[in-house]
Every structure is written in structure tokens, then in C-alpha cells.
């Protein structure tokens, strides 16, 4: 029985040590950002939308709380809600990414709204976008600009109209 108790104690110590190590070496735990893209926007456009996939491989949930880019004056987090038969956009304060889960920002759903565009977004080019997470801190990605009618990977249909 004594031996068993020692084994338990050592196991617990090792677990605590590896946890401390993981926390110490990785200040941005478990958030991956993939597939960032936006629709092209012409000279007359004041706003644009950007989409991406957030994946949390960690054991704790995290939140996207804000975003910014040199391409726009400000970036808001938006979602679409169904109001009768009409889809409307609504600003949200944050986007939660649960432990070991994935959130897709995509046409017809959650998106990043780029407001006060500094210039046109030309198809085939890209711009940097910095995302701020409550726990993971800042993550900067390069957003690829696709055609004005693009729906993203694997999206054949959906809601393309954007009422800004
Ligand atoms: Cu929007």
C-alpha cells in the first residue's frame, strides 16, 4: 500500500511539472487560424468582409475579442441572424472557441467586417490581419483576396448579399 501511495504521489508531481512546462513554454495555447480570405472590394467600397477558421486544440475555451488591419480603419465581429425571412447582420462582442473545437467564419454566418477601407482590395493580393484572443493573445495572418463573388472553399451556395 505504501508503494502504491508513492507511485500516485510521483505521478501527480510529474503531471503538475509537465503542465507548468507547457504553460511556461507556450504563451499562446492552442489557437490555430486557417484559411483567411476576403472578397475583393473596389475603389467605391467602404467596407469588406473577411472569413477564416478558428481552431482551439487546447483544454480551455478561448475568445476572439477583436481584430485590426492596416487595410481598414476598424474591424468589427459580425454574425447573421434571421429576422423573419430576412438575414440581418449584427455585431457581436466576441466569438467563443470552445476547448477542442472549431469555429468557421463563413458567408451567411460569422464574419469580420472591415470598415473604413483604406483602399481597394485587389483580387490576388493579400493583407495582414491581427486577431486578439482573450487567452492566446495576438495572432497575425495574411488574408488572401478572392473574387468579389467568392464563397470560400467548399461553399457552393449561401447568402452572398451584404447590406452595408
Ligand atoms: Cu457584417
Compact description:
The protein is mainly beta and 164 residues long. The protein contains one helix and ten strands, in the order αββββββββββ.
List the helices and strands and how they pair.
Blueprint (H helix, E strand, L loop, with lengths): L1 H24 L5 E9 L7 E10 L5 E7 L3 E12 L2 E6 L3 E3 L3 E4 L6 E7 L8 E8 L3 E10 L18
Parallel strand pairs: 1-10
Antiparallel strand pairs: 1-2, 2-7, 2-8, 3-6, 3-9, 4-5, 4-8, 9-10
The site of copper (II) ion has 4 residues, from β8.
Ranges with pLDDT <50 over ≥5 residues?
A: 19-27, 155-164
Overall 3D shape: globular
As for the number of domains, it is 1
CATH-assigned homologous superfamily? PCu(A)C copper chaperone
For the sheet with most strands, the description reads: 10 strands, mixed
What integer is the average pLDDT? 84
Task: List bound small molecules.
Answer: copper (II) ion
CATH-derived topology:
Immunoglobulin-like
Number of strands: 10
Counted by DSSP, the helix tally is: 1
What is the helix content?
A: 10-25%
* The first-level CATH class name: Mainly Beta
Order of helices and strands: HEEEEEEEEEE
Strand content range: over 45%
Please give the radius of gyration in angstroms: 20 Å
Distance between the termini: 70 Å
What's the architecture, going by CATH?
A: Sandwich
Broad structural category: mainly beta
